[in-house]
């Protein structure tokens, strides 16, 4: 009885456990199904919101073009993967059913077929989805525009390497993935059923299994043969030789080796095919091994022997033609072949009259660095803790009929500093930044701070700049949240004293309508935030502004372009606009050197994107009709790109040659200005971008914008320039200017200094400045008493055929980042001017009366109150002055004498200074 009871209890326990297990499976199945449904719903909602976003921009054609492009590649790729995998799996099923030893041990009939079909369908769907992301490769191939330039090895147009070869390599990789997955699945099933196993000392294959695997091996070897052909084309981007591109060894050893290996792979494929109908297992096993051995011997060892015993002993002689090819193609790929060269013999007799004639240059010599200006903006113009300024950029504006260099930045909301970061505040109330700050590059206020040409809230401008729509809904801040406008919540516009001013979004365009419930649900799913669904502030007319970061915004429309990381702001017709530099790039331009630190070897700044900071409206301008890549994109998206002539003249006047691309070009030009293969090989004239002092460390200089008059030009213009020094030396050897004004946009000129004449470079001039007693003493004095001295960038400025160096000196209190301009240093030859203003420093070297400027107040009491370069005092004035005045006068005279090397006069003045100090009252007055 007890045993029966126990058995009954056991049965009940087993039924209970089975019930629990069943219920657990149901719960888990429900959870998994719910997660899948939710993920699919979010994906569909995101796609729907993206469609609404493109529709709001008027670019719905771009949205559908990308969708169809993805389908045109993803569906065939997924279908091909499905059919190939299904064919493999069904072949395994047929083999299993035909093998008597496993026929009774495996599933029969349709059940197995449906399982295998389902597995292949899932794999095909995933493969098609992954493949659809490569749609630009397909459409660049279909709509390609020829370059009109052929490579010197295969004599194909460069378009083959830029547009066709990347697609062929993608197809090759896709085919290998499918083949490996199919072979692995088949081998796994065969092994599971015992038709493929390892017995001691040998591999046991069922005849059906052998035929199937032989067929897959044939496909693999055929694919490998094609891969060797593609590898031959890839030699034109080889890095084996002294330069980029196919070298002597590549052309005379590797290329023939790849052709031989392709033939061997075809022979091996024939052997594998024979094993499908004949039982030749040993040749089947030997064929791939033979191809692998040949690949090592012919493809690796033979080229290495040629390199070591044929090329290296006479490398220059062997490689000279290939060096010439790399020089020519690299210069073409980076537009270096368009740089004009002119001699520049610096004058040593520059006069005050010359400076007066070059007033458009001297009035634009930059005294404010971006970092110092940014600190001043944040301290003086943020006005509230929730405002922050974007990185400062350099531009130019016409002020009173003259082109003036300026620094400016947008004032945006810093959402991390909101006092109450609620959902309503972040998304409905604080929806936009406000206005901008702008200062002239070459002027300051009477207190040593920037002189504002655009400032405050609401915006004011003493030079007539109009900013009637200062609101910034779309900006440069990296993490701008979405904003919902036209709601029941009033939008904060700007602070005004003790109260706030409110103004709602007024543009008729821009934003996604989220009044309809379908749109609201989709938007809530996309953002994973459900306040949107139950908020009573959202009205039927409300709109959501998304993708408010400028770079994120343009990348959503054209993800195949590459973008300069820092857009720049433009004030135009009372509004604010962003200009984004976009690049077309390629990594497969033949014989071209890869960019330093980059993944490309061809680049063009072929697109400028203008974004309205208020409406978010974007306009893409194709500005380089000589670039085949952008012309190809114009074919793919015929309604997206506008010609440069369609850009308003007021915006076109603010186009800048981009710093990022120019820096890459200059790093390459330092080597590729040498066009003679022998000179190039020996690095006889190697340059390097000049070094500069940043803090206390040397660092390569960065290109900088200036306004100056080029030699032979009729007027000053906005340029981007980079100085060069010889490799391993600090003297100046050349400087290159990229022009930005509309009439000459994109033109580059290299001015080369005589190699027989020493021209001081930035580091040498910096050393001269550091050794100047007056400069050293004042900088030491200002560095004490709770203040820091900041040295600005030392900029080389060509003026009337001469070369001047200008460096601003700032002072700021410790712990209070509000830098003030205290001195300006000008260096010319062996002369140094050191004064409270640029004009004063120039006068200290060239004499004459400097033009009237806004004065800079005297430095703190710890520093010399009289600028040494302009200090002078007569004996009569000294005699009639107070003791304190006499002491300051003698101090200035002593410094002046010391700078001139007149030690007798210095000793006399120093003794008089001591006498004057003794006459000072005990209180110091």
Structural class label = alpha+beta
Helix content: 40-55%
Rg from alpha-carbon coordinates: 37 Å
- Total helix count? 27
* Number of strand elements: 32
Instruction: Summarize the biggest pleated sheet.
Output: 6 strands, mixed
Can you tag this structure with a few keywords?
925 residues; 46% helix; 18% strand; 6-stranded mixed sheet; alpha+beta
Question: Can you describe what's shown?
Answer:
The protein has 925 residues and is an alpha+beta fold. It contains 27 helices and 32 strands. The strands form nine sheets. Strands 3, 21, 24, 25, 26 and 27 form a six-stranded mixed beta sheet that branches. A hairpin with a 2-residue loop joins strand 5 (393-399) and strand 6 (402-413). Helix 2 packs antiparallel against helix 4, helix 2 (60-98) packs parallel to helix 6 (158-192) and helix 7 packs antiparallel against helix 8 (248-277). The longest helix has 56 residues, at 2-57. It is globular and about 120 Å long. The termini are far apart. Mean pLDDT is 86; it is low at 850-880.
Present the secondary structure layout.
Blueprint: H1 2-57, H2 60-98, H3 100-103, H4 110-132, H5 135-142, H6 158-192, E1 196-199, E2 202-205, H7 207-234, H8 248-277, H9 281-311, H10 315-333, E3 340-343, H11 352-357, H12 359-362, H13 370-380, E4 387-389, E5 393-399, E6 402-413, H14 423-429, E7 433-434, E8 436-440, E9 471-472, E10 483-485, E11 492-496, E12 499-502, E13 512-513, H15 517-527, H16 531-534, E14 543-545, H17 550-557, E15 562-563, E16 568-572, E17 575-586, E18 602-612, E19 618-622, H18 628-636, E20 641-643, H19 649-652, H20 659-672, H21 677-682, E21 687-689, E22 691-694, E23 697-700, E24 704-708, E25 717-726, E26 734-739, E27 748-752, H22 762-771, H23 773-782, E28 787-791, E29 795-799, E30 802-813, E31 820-828, E32 831-835, H24 838-846, H25 875-880, H26 883-899, H27 903-918
Parallel strand pairs: 3-27, 19-20
Antiparallel strand pairs: 1-2, 4-6, 5-6, 6-8, 7-9, 10-14, 11-12, 13-14, 15-17, 16-17, 17-18, 18-19, 21-25, 22-23, 24-25, 25-26, 26-27, 28-30, 29-30, 30-31, 31-32
Helix pairs in contact: 1-2, 1-15, 2-4, 2-5, 2-6, 5-6, 6-7, 7-8, 8-9, 26-27
């Amino acid at each position: 009885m007890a045993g029966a009871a126990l058995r009954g209890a056991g049965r009940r326990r087993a039924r209970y456990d089975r019930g629990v297990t069943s219920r657990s499976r149901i719960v888990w199945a429900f959870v998994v199904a719910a997660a899948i449904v939710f993920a699919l719903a979010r994906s569909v909602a995101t796609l729907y919101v993206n469609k609404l976003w493109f529709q709001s921009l008027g670019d719905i054609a771009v949205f559908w073009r990308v969708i169809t492009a993805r389908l045109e590649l993803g569906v065939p790729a997924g279908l091909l993967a499905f059919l190939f995998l299904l064919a493999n799996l069904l072949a395994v099923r047929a083999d299993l059913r035909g093998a008597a030893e496993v026929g009774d041990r495996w599933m029969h009939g349709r059940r197995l077929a449906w399982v295998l079909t389902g597995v292949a369908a899932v794999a095909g769907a995933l493969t098609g989805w992954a493949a659809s992301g490569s749609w630009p490769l397909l459409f660049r191939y279909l709509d390609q525009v020829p370059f009109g330039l052929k490579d010197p090895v295969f004599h194909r147009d460069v378009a083959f390497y830029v547009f066709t070869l990347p697609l062929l390599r993608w197809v090759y990789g896709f085919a290998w993935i499918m083949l490996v997955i199919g072979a692995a699945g088949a081998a796994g099933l065969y092994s599971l059923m015992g038709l493929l196993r390892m017995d001691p000392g040998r591999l046991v294959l069922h005849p059906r299994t052998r035929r199937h695997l032989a067929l897959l091996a044939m496909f693999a070897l055929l694919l490998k043969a094609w891969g060797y052909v593609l590898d031959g084309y890839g030699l034109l981007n080889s890095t084996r030789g002294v330069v980029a591109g196919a070298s002597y060894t590549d052309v005379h050893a590797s290329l023939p080796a790849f052709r031989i290996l392709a033939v061997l792979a075809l022979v091996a494929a024939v052997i594998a095919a024979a094993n499908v109908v004949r039982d030749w297992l040993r040749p089947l096993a030997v064929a791939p091994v033979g191809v692998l051995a040949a690949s090592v011997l012919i493809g690796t060892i033979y080229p290495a022997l040629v390199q070591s015993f044929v090329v290296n002993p006479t490398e220059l002689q062997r490689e000279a033609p290939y060096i010439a090819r790399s020089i020519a193609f690299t210069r073409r790929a980076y537009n270096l072949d368009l740089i004009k060269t002119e001699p520049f013999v610096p004058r040593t007799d520059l006069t005050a009259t010359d400076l007066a004639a070059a007033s458009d240059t001297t009035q634009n010599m930059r005294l404010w660095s971006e970092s110092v200006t940014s600190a001043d903006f944040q301290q003086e113009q943020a006005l509230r803790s929730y405002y922050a300024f974007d990185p400062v950029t350099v531009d130019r504006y016409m002020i009173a009929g003259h082109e003036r260099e300026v620094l400016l930045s947008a004032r945006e909301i810093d959402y991390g500093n909101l006092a109450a970061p609620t959902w309503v505040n972040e998304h409905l109330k604080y929806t936009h930044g406000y206005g901008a700050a702008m200062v002239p590059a070459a002027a300051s206020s009477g207190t040593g701070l920037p002189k504002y040409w655009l400032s405050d809230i609401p915006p004011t401008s003493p030079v007539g700049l109009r900013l009637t729509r200062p609101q910034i809904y779309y900006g440069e801040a990296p993490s701008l949240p979405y904003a919902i406008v036209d709601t029941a919540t009033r939008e904060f516009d700007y602070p005004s004293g003790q109260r706030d001013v409110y103004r709602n979004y007024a543009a008729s365009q821009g934003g996604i309508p989220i009044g309809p419930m379908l749109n609201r649900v989709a938007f809530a799913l996309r953002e994973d935030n459900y306040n949107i669904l139950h908020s009573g502030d959202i009205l039927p007319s409300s709109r959501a502004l998304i993708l408010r970061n400028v770079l994120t915004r343009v990348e959503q429309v054209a993800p195949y372009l590459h973008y300069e990381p820092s857009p720049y702001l433009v004030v135009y017709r009372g509004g604010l606009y962003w200009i984004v530099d976009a690049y077309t790039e390629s990594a497969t331009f033949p014989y071209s050197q890869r960019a330093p630190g980059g993944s490309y070897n061809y680049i063009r700044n072929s697109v400028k994107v203008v974004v309205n900071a208020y409406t978010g409206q974007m306009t893409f301008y194709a500005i380089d009709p000589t670039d085949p890549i952008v012309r190809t994109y114009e074919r793919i998206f015929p309604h997206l790109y506008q010609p440069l002539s369609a850009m308003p003249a007021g915006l076109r006047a603010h186009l800048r040659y981009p710093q990022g691309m120019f820096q890459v070009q200059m790093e390459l030009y330092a080597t590729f200005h040498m066009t003679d293969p022998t000179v190039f090989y020996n690095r006889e004239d190697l340059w390097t971008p000049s070094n500069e002092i940043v803090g206390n460390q040397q660092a390569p200089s960065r290109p900088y914008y200036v306004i100056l008059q080029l030699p032979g030009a009729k007027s000053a213009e906005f340029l981007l320039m980079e100085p060069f020094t010889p490799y391993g030396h600090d003297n100046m050897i050349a400087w290159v200017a990229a022009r930005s004004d509309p009439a000459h946009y994109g033109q580059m000129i290299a001015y080369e200094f005589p190699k027989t004449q020493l021209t001081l470079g930035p580091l040498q001039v910096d050393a001269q400045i550091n050794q100047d007693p007056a400069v050293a003493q004042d900088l030491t004095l200002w560095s004490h008493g709770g203040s820091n001295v900041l040295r600005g960038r030392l900029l080389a400025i060509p003026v009337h055929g001469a070369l001047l160096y200008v460096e601003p000196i700032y002072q700021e209190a410790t712990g209070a980042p509000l830098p003030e301009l205290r001195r300006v240093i000008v260096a010319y030859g062996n002369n140094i001017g050191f004064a409270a203003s640029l004009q004063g420093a120039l006068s200290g070297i060239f004499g004459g009366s400097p033009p009237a400027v806004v004065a800079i107040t005297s430095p703190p009491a710890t520093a010399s109150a009289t600028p040494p370069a302009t200090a002078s005092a007569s004996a009569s004035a000294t005699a009639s002055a107070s003791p304190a005045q006499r002491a300051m006068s003698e101090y200035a005279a002593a410094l002046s004498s010391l700078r001139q090397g007149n030690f007798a006069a210095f000793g006399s003045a120093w003794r008089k200074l001591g006498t004057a100090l003794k006459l000072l009252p005990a209180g110091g007055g």
